Amino acid sequence: MTESVAAVPAHTGSRSTRLLGLATLAGIAVVLVLALAVTGPDKVQGDAARLIYLHVPVAISMNVGFGLCTLGSVMWLWKRSRWWDTVAVSAAEVGLVFTGLTLVTGMVWGRPTWGVYWTWDARLTTFSLLFLLYLGYLVVRRLPADVEVRNRRSAYVALLAFVDVPIVYLSVSWWRGLHQEATLSLSTTISGLMLFTLVLGIAVASMGFLWLLVHRFRVAWLEDEVEIAGLDLAITERRAEAASVEVPA
Amino acid sequence: MDPVAKDQVVRLRAAVSLLGRFPALAGVDLDVERGEVVLVRGPNGAGKTTLLRACAGLVPVVSGEATVLGCDLTQAADRTAVRRRVGLLGHTTGLYEDLTVTDNVRFWARACGATRAESDAALAALGLDGRLAGVVVAKLSAGQRRRTSIAALVARRSELWLLDEPHAGLDQAGRDVVDRLIRSAAAAGATVIVASHELDRAGAIADRTVTLAGGTVVVQPTSSVLASTSPHMRTDRRQNEGDGETEVLRVP
Amino acid sequence: MFRDAALVAGKDLRIEWRSHVTTNQVAPFAVLVLILFAFALDPDRDVLQRATAGLFWIAILFSAVLAVQRAFALEAADGNRDALRLSGLSPAGIFLGKAGAIALELAALEVLLGIGVAVLYNTTWSGWLLLITTSVVATIGLAAAGSLYGVLAAGLRVRETLLPLLFLPVVAPVLLGATRAFEAALDQSPADGWSWVTLLTTFAVIYVAFGVLAFGSLLEES
Lengths: 249, 252, 222
Known about the structure:
heterotrimer, A: 249 residues, mainly alpha, 6 helices, globular, B: 252 residues, alpha/beta, four-stranded antiparallel beta sheet, 8 helices, 10 strands, 24% strand
């Protein structure tokens, strides 16, 4: 997965990502056709329920991204693995985008179905806090600092966020459990073609997530390579200072 | 790698330390024996502060060899271990503005395990046990704050003292106090490394001088060459050039 | 570790005693928040009384942000962070000391706000055991989480804006749990409240443990 610095690539594509990208596009097309045309509308919610084929897959990818970020952070703290740290930041960024998508699709689904843009059910509430936690992680990541410090700080922020998420979810579901649970779900059990479409949707979303992740990873990796390669040059320049300074005898 | 001699307090070989991306130390070689007083001089930006902070274990050494008091400065655990054994007097005061002189010194002394008696002795040695004892640090002058920081340092009774421009901003009396302090520390067997521009004063106390520039040691003369380097003498030295020990390099 | 914690907490409280920042600035701020809520909501229609628990805890949360910032601003000043690292104090001890001092300050604020709410919102407090237990546990959680993010943000130029962004989402469950427990106490049905106390205790335990283990790493700048 690593490009050599000497090669200075013009872009981060490669044969495998091109294949992946094409497969994702094809998959999206298939899912769209299935979701919009072939499967039937939900008995109660009507056509709005078709958003499930987008909302659920995107939500699952978002969670996977969050998990990867946490895993990457743990591996960095444990093994000082630069590869894993780069996975962490890439997963966080792509995950943030997917979280946004999840929240938006949730809102678009909720409006025609329940008449409201937002419902304070456990999942959506947790997801919105997750968005903020991810955001905090990325803000900390971008603070100017030495690489070690940056990686360590953001790894701890990721861990703290990870530990917090189940607590948030539990507390909100206890809270909202006492009230009418206005969740985004279908009124009938999913089976047959609908199930197939959903599973396909999940697969396609995962492929899209992976494609974005790989590219983001490569960009982050190359950025760090530039920093590291710069060090030897900086040392040489620094020592040259000594030659140009008058040393009082 | 040669084994570190038992009496060698500091041993650096091609040590590199970074401040962010910038190599503040770009390959330093340094040897300091136990009980020596070493003056480190050099232009601003040469890396003197970073050198002292690295020896204190605050800044990691990313490449090369670096051993201080038997601790390997490239390893995080050793860096933590070396910290409580050295005493660093930096540019900053390390004092709490809202607490009094006495409170500050007692806190920092107790933090490193010194007794109340030791901190009181330090306050007395620096003349801080009288009128100034109950004064809040925020109300002190810069020189008085420096003396308070020094008192906190004295109470630690460290094996290695790292003083970063200790005379700066002090009046004559204050500078005399610092000189006395360095002498008594050396007399008590501690090793002292002083970074200073006060070449006459510090040079008179130091056993030898090391010159730092561009993050490296430019010249490390042996103790036979004393660092008496007031500017008006420079031309004379240039004329006496030939011993190869010192080099005068061109100013851009 | 505990000796170090006591030393650090004592130092922080002594500084507070001399500088009166919590009493002169944070406490008035907290009361101000209560008053502003009254301006924003309708004081004549029992809204304030019904929302008391939530408003109380929001005021405490905002005050906690200030308290944490103050606690770590002390250390960011003039090389104190270096001095702490050089001092030989165990980082876990420093964490417990700082969190402990923050917790005590917050506890004092809670008493003050409790009185404030009784007076300003016409609320009568009841279910004292539940109230006190909830406060203790929630405050410990807030202080622990605050200390973790406080040390991370300390010394950064952007710390004033970064700390709330990091701290507040993470302590949202504390707000939730403490508010529900308080409501249960006020509604005279404490049985519901105790399960929230369990949640708050879990939060506190997790974050104290995290702090003890990770504070040292976070204290390092390099």
